[in-house]
User: Fold Sugar hydrolase from Streptomyces roseolilacinus.
Amino acid sequence: MTADRLPFRDPQLPFGKRVDDLLGRLTLDERIALLHQFAPAVDRLGVPAFRTGQEALHGVAWMGPATVFPQAVGLGATWNEDLVRRVGEAVSTEVRAMRARDDRVGLNVWAPTVNLLRHPLWGRGEEGYSEDPALTSAIATAYTRGLRGDHPVYWRTAPVLKHWLAHNNETDRDTASASVRPRVLHEYDLRAFRTAVEAGAVAGVMPAYNLVNGRPNHVSPYLREHLRTWTDRELLVCSDAGAPSNLVDSEHYFDTHEEATAAALRAGVDSFTDHGTDGSKTTARVRGALDRGLLEESDVDTAVRRQLHVRLALGEFDPDLDPYAGTDAFDTAEHRALALEAAEQAVVLLANDGLLPLDPDAGQRVAVVGPLADECKLDWYSGTLIHRSSPLDGLRDRFGADRVTHAEGADVVRLRCAAGLLRVPDGGGTAGTAARGAEGALDPALLAGRTDLPPLTVDGRGTEFALTDWGGGVLTLRAPDGHYLSVADDRRVRASADQPGGWVVQETFRLEPHDGGHLLRHLGTGGHVSVAADGVKVAADGEGAPAVFAVETVRRGADEVAAAAGAADVVVVVAGNDPHINGRETEDRTTLALPEAQDRLWRAARAANPRTVLVLASSYPYAVPDAAAELPALLWTAHGGQAAGTALARVLAGDVSPAGRLPQTWYAADADLPDLFDYDVIGGRQTYLYFDGRPLFPFGHGLTYTAFTYADLAAERRGDTVRVAFTVANTGPAASDEVAQVYARAVDPAVPRPHRELVAHRRVHLASGARERLEFEVPLCALGFWDVAHGRWTVAPGTYAFEAAASSADVRLTGTVEVTGPAPAPRPVLERGLDAADYDEQRGTRIADRSRVSGDCVTPAGEGAGELLFRACDLGAGAASAALEVSGTGAVTLALGDGTPLASADVAVPGGPYAYTRVHVPVEAAGVRDLRIGLTGTVRLATVAFTRAES
Assistant:
C-alpha cells in the first residue's frame, strides 16, 4: 500500500484511529525525534517536517513584514471580545498566507499570553491582557477563537497559551519560585487559562520558566491535575525555549538531563524547545532516559499522539479538504482598517477638563513634542512594519502639516575626551539591524550591529548626538542621520541601528561620574567605551583604560519643548517607553515613575502653555500624580501598532470618542506596590480586587467625550445563574462606545473576599440620545471561592451585591441577591487533618514542593520564624495527639488561636528536604478552635493528622 493510501490519510476515519495508525507505523527513533521542536520529516511515510512555535501575539512576529496590531495590553484595554476575535482571525489568516510563501512560518502559534498583570513592574506586562482573571480569560478566549477559525474539523492555526503558571517576574525568572496558596491558585491564576481551554479553541499551553511552590513549571503536576481535566481534547504542551535544560543547568532540580527530560515528559511536556534547530541532544536524553528505565515507550507515545492530533487538526494530511489551505489574504484593506479600529478602541482617556476634543477646523497651531512624538515603536513580539503612523504623522494628516510643529525634546550633546570629540565618519550610518531569538525563534543570534560600516572616531569637530534618557540613567545616542549608536560583535561603536532592539539591546549606554567627567558604559556588554587607533570601541577586560568624557550640551530638550509650546495654541506631549528598554522580557522595571527627563518635558510644556495634553504611549502604567492634577487632559495607549498615530489623531480630533478602559490598576506611587515576588494577591492586598488604598486611576477607568447614565437595575436569581439587567443612555452630545461593567461582591463574607469582582461587561455603541437595555447572565459559581477547609469550590450563602458600574470605582447602581444553602462547616480536622498549605493566613512562610512530583509543604521564608493560622478547626470532643509530617531541621509549635500553647517538637530529619517522617506530639484541645502552627529553621511541614481523645 502506498503512503498516500494508508489509513492515517483517510479523512473518513476519526482522528483517534488515524493517529493510532500513524503512531503504529513510526519506529521508536522516529517517535523520539518528533519530541523536539523541529521535528524531522519521515520520508518513507510521506510525513513532512513540522515545528512547534510561531509567535503571533499581536500579529505575525519575526518572519518579516506583517500587519502589526496594538500590543496585547492594548487589546485588553478595548474590553471588546468581538474586536479581538476579528484581530485573531486576521493574524491567523496572515500566518496561513505567509506559510504558503515560506515554510518556516509555523501553524502552531504561541499566543496569547494570559499571565495576569498582577504587578505593574513586571517587564512583560505588555504581553498580557489584564490584572483581572475574568477580563483576561474573556479576551483570550476571543483571540484564540479567531486564531483557531470556525470550521468544525480543521483549524486555521493551533494556539498555545503562555505561560503556565503564576509568571510575573523577569528577575531570576528561571530560578525564582512563586508561592501560590490554594485560594490564589483556584480563584486567580488558573482562571485565566481555564475559560479559553473549556471554550475549545486552545491547542495547548506553554509552561513558564519560573517555579511554583518550589517546583519548576515544566514538571508541574497541575498540567495533569487541572489543565487536562478541563477538556477531552488532546492538549499539546510545548516547553519554553531552553527550559528543559534549565531543570538541571540553572535550577539544579535534577542531577542529570535524562532525569529532567523524563520528569518533564511524564508530567506532560510534549514538545521540547531546546538547543535551537538541533534536536540531537533532546533525542539523546530521551533515549538515555529509556535506557535507564526512567521512561516507558508509552510515555513517548503519549506525547507524540498529542502532537499528531494537532497536525491532523491543521489539515496537514488532508490538503484537499483543508478549508484554509488556499488562504492568501495578507496586508489587505480589511486588515489595515482593523488595525486602525483596534488602535482607536485601545485609547484610554484618563482625564479631561474639556480641552479635548480639539477642533481640526479651528485653525489651531498644534505642537507635538516628546521622545515618542515621531515614533511608531515595536516590541519583541512584533512583525516588521509595512505601514507606519507616528503621532506626528497622524496629527499632520488630520490637522494640516502647516499647523503642526514638532520638537523631540532630546538633549543635543557632544562627547569630548582627551583625544577629541566623538564623531561619526561620513557615511557611517545607513541602516539598522534585526534579530530573532527567545521562544523558538528561527535565528537565536543576538543583535550585534553592522560590521560593514566604519566605527566612530575622534577629531576636533565631532558629531552632535541626540541623547534620550529613558530613565534610570539608561541612554540612547542618535546621530544626525537618524541612526543609533550600536556595538557590533567586534566591539566597535558605530551609528548603525534604526532602532534599539534585539534580545540583548546593543544601543543603550550609561554615563557614570568619574574623575571630574564621565565613563560611558555600554549596557549590552557591560564594558566601557574607549578610544583606540582603529576607532571607538568597548574595551574588553584588561584592554586598557576607558575614555573619560565631558558632556557638552549644545541644546537642552526642555528648552526646545518650551519654545515649541509657547508658539502653539495647544501642545501634545507624547511620552512613555521604548518596549526594548527598561521593562521587557528578561528585565523588570524598578519604578512606576515617569523618567525624570520626560517629567521635565511635560512640565516645561505646561509652563509655556497651559493647554497641554499628555499622551502616555507605553507598555505599562506610570505613577503620574502631578500630571493628573495639573494638566487639563491625560491619555494612555499601549503601543498601537502600525496605525497608532492615525488612531491617536482621530481621538484627539473627536472623530472617535475614546472608550478604552484600563485593564489594570494605575497606582499613585511605588509605595502602593507589593513585593515583586509576592504572588499572594489576597494576603498582599493586590490588584483592584483587594487593594485597600486609593489608586491614581482605578481598574476599568476611562472617560469619553459624552455622558452616560445608568438606570433601572434588576438582579434576580434564576436557577444556577443571576440575571442582571440595566439601561444605559447616552445623554451627552457625541456618539460613543460605553463599556458597561458588572461587579459582584459578598456583602458580609466569612473569609477575605474581593472588594468587588468583575463578573460581566459589554462594550456598546450609542448615538447621542440613544439608550439600550443590557442583560447579563452571571453563573452562580462566579460568586464562589476556594474553600481551603474542605478543598472545594464553594458559593457561601448570604447576600451578594451586583453593581452596574463605569469602572471599579464608579458604581452607578446596586442590587442584591440572596443565596441560600448550608453555611460552611468548620474544618473537619479529626477526619481530614490539615494540609499545611491550606492555611487561612500566614506570616513569614512560603509554600514549597512536597516532592519533586507532586504535593505542597510549608517552610519558613528566609531566616527566622513563620506562622500559619487555620480558622474554625473542629476538634470534636477532643484531640489527644497530632502527627506532624515533617522534614528538615528546626521546630514546630502548635497553639490555639489565642496563643495558648498546645505542643512543640524539635525536628532533625536526615536525608534532604524530601525525606519526611512523622513526629507525634500530645495535644489537649476540643471544640471548634482556631489553630496556630509555628515553624522555625529549615523545617518543612506537609500535613498534620489528629487522633481523637478516648471518650
Remarks:
- The longest strand covers residues 879-896.
- The chain has five domains: 23-49+161-309, 344-409+557-689, 419-546, 706-819, 829-948.
- The chain is about 20% helix and 30% strand.
- The two ends are 77 Å apart (CA to CA).
